[in-house]
Q: What sequence folds into this?
C-alpha cells in the first residue's frame, strides 16, 4: 500500500515496544465467556477437522469465518490455546502500528510524531483491552482491515493520485473487513466517503473502474451468504435478524443504550480516561491554534472521520462497549500529531525528557494488564480451574446452568483436553448424578449444593474460584461443612 518507504531503526524499536501491551500475558487469562468462548469453540472445532465454512453452533456464528480461520491455523501451530485464539487480535495491533508508522513516514511527519502516535494508540484501554486487542473476538482483525482501506483513501487524497494499486488494495481491504465481521467492517465507509467527496479525488467515485470494483467486491461478499444458505437452510433469515435488523430496531433489549453511550464509556468505564480530555484539547488546538496548512489538512480529515464514526455507531439502539474499536487509531493520529507538533518547539537536548511520561504511560498500561488476568464471570470459574489441573483422568465437573451457552468456556477446555489426552471430562448439573468416590471441580457459586448433600474431602482450594473435592458419603445433615484434607 505504501511503496518505497524505509522506516528508521527507531521506528522498528517503537513498533516492537508498543506491541508489548498486546502480547504481554496474552495467554494468562482463561478464555472469556460469551463472544470469545463462542469463537474459540468454533475455531477449535475447525482445527480438529470440522467444517471451515459453517462453524459448529452455527446459530451463534453468523459472521463470515476469516477470523475463525486465523484462529484455527494458530491453534494448529501453538500448544497454548488461549494464546493461539488471541494471537490474530494481537498481530492486528502490530499491523496497525506498522501501518501508522509507514503512513506517517510517507506523509512527512517527524520521528517524534510517529513515536507519539504509536504510544497514544497502545498506552490506554481504548483498543488494547477486553473484546478488542487482547481477546479472541473479531473486532481487532476487522479494525486492521478497516484502518487499511481508510489509509489507502487518505494516502490518495494527500498525494491527489489514485492509481490501480490503490483501487485493488482498497477493495481487497473492504472484502477482508467484511469477511472479518460482516457489515460492521463497512461502517467506516460512511465517514471515509465524507472526506472523499469533500476532496479533489471525488471523481474517482464515479469512475468505471471504481464501479466495477464495487460490484465485484459485493458479489464476493454475497457469495458467503448464498453459499452458506445452500449448506445451512434458513441462514439468511438468521443473519438478517442477528446482523442487519439490529441496525434499525432493538432486537436485543439487554444491549439497549442511549445515544451518548460510547461517549459516557470513555469516563464511566475508564476506556479512554483521561485521554478523552487530552483528545478534546487536541481537537481544539488543531482547529483554532495550529497554523500549519499541511498538518491541519491531515488533522481535519482525521477529526471528521472520528466524529462521524462515533455519531454513526451511536444511532442504533443496540450497542456494545467495544463497537468503537475502529476509531482508536484515528484518536491516536490526532493526539500523537498534536503532541509531535508541540514537541517540535522544544530544544533537541530537552526532547529526551519526553521519555519520562512515555515510560509512565507504559508502566501504567503493564500494571493494568497484570491486574486484569483473573476470570471476570462466575461461568468462567470451572474452566479456569480445569485448565490448571495436570491429571484430569478422573476429573468431573459439577456446574448447574440455565442454558447450555453458560458452559461455552468450559466446553472449550473439555474439547482441548479431549484432543490432547483423549480424556472426556463429564459435566453434571444435578447432585443426584454424583457418586461416592467422584473427583469433582465445583465453583464457589455451587459448592454449597454439594456440601448440603455429601461429606467431601477437599483436595485443593483454588483461590477465588472454587474447589477440587472428593465425594466421600451422603451427608446426614444439610449443615455439613467442607472437610479439609
A:
Amino acid at each position: 500500500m505504501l511503496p518505497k518507504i524505509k522506516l528508521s531503526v527507531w521506528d522498528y524499536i517503537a513498533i516492537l515496544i508498543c506491541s508489548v501491551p498486546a502480547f504481554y500475558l496474552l495467554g494468562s487469562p482463561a478464555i472469556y465467556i460469551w463472544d470469545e468462548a463462542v469463537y474459540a469453540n468454533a475455531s477449535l472445532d475447525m482445527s480438529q477437522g470440522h467444517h471451515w465454512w459453517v462453524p459448529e453452533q452455527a446459530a451463534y456464528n453468523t459472521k463470515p469465518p476469516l477470523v475463525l480461520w486465523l484462529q484455527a491455523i494458530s491453534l494448529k501451530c501453538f500448544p497454548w490455546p488461549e494464546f493461539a485464539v488471541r494471537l490474530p487480535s494481537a498481530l492486528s495491533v502490530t499491523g496497525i502500528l506498522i501501518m501508522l508508522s509507514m503512513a506517517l513516514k510517507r506523509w512527512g511527519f517527524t520521528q517524534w510524531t510517529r513515536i507519539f502516535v504509536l504510544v497514544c494508540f497502545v498506552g490506554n484501554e481504548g483498543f488494547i483491552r477486553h473484546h478488542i486487542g487482547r481477546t479472541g473476538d473479531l473486532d481487532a482483525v476487522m479494525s486492521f482491515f478497516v484502518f487499511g482501506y481508510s489509509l489507502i483513501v487518505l494516502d490518495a487524497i494527500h498525494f491527489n493520485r489514485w492509481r490501480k494499486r490503490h483501487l485493488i488494495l482498497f477493495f481487497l481491504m473492504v472484502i477482508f473487513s467484511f469477511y472479518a465481521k460482516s457489515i460492521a467492517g463497512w461502517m467506516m465507509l460512511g465517514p471515509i466517503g465524507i472526506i472523499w467527496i469533500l476532496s479533489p479525488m471525488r471523481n474517482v467515485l464515479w469512475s468505471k473502474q471504481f464501479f466495477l470494483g464495487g460490484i465485484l467486491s459485493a458479489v464476493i461478499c454475497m457469495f458467503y451468504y448464498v453459499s452458506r444458505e445452500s449448506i445451512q437452510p434458513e441462514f439468511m433469515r438468521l443473519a438478517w435478524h442477528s446482523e442487519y435488523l439490529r441496525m434499525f430496531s432493538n432486537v436485543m433489549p439487554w444491549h439497549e443504550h442511549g445515544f451518548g453511550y460510547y461517549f459516557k464509556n470513555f469516563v464511566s468505564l475508564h476506556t479512554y480516561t483521561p485521554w478523552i480530555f487530552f483528545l478534546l484539547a487536541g481537537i481544539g488546538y488543531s482547529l483554532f491554534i495550529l497554523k500549519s496548512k499541511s498538518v491541519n489538512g491531515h488533522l481535519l480529515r482525521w477529526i471528521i472521520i472520528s466524529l462521524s464514526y462515533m455519531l454513526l455507531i451511536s444511532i442504533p439502539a443496540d450497542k456494545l462497549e467495544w463497537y468503537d474499536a475502529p476509531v482508536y487509531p484515528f484518536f491516536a493520529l490526532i493526539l500523537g500529531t498534536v503532541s509531535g507538533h508541540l514537541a517540535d518547539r522544544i530544544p533537541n537536548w530537552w526532547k529526551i525528557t519526553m521519555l519520562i511520561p512515555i515510560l509512565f504511560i507504559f508502566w501504567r498500561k503493564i500494571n493494568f494488564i497484570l491486574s486484569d488476568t483473573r476470570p471476570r464471570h462466575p461461568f468462567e470459574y470451572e474452566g479456569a480451574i480445569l485448565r490448571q489441573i495436570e491429571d484430569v483422568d478422573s476429573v468431573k465437573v459439577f456446574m448447574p446452568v440455565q442454558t447450555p451457552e453458560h458452559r461455552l468456556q468450559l466446553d472449550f477446555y473439555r474439547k482441548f483436553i479431549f484432543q490432547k489426552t483423549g480424556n472426556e471430562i463429564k459435566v453434571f448439573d444435578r447432585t443426584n448424578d454424583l457418586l461416592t468416590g467422584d473427583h469433582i471441580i465445583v465453583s464457589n457459586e455451587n459448592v454449597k449444593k454439594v456440601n448440603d448433600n455429601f461429606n467431601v474431602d477437599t483436595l485443593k482450594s483454588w483461590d477465588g474460584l472454587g474447589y477440587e473435592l472428593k465425594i466421600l458419603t451422603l451427608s446426614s445433615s444439610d449443615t455439613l461443612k467442607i472437610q479439609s484434607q
The chain has two domains: 9-370, 378-484.
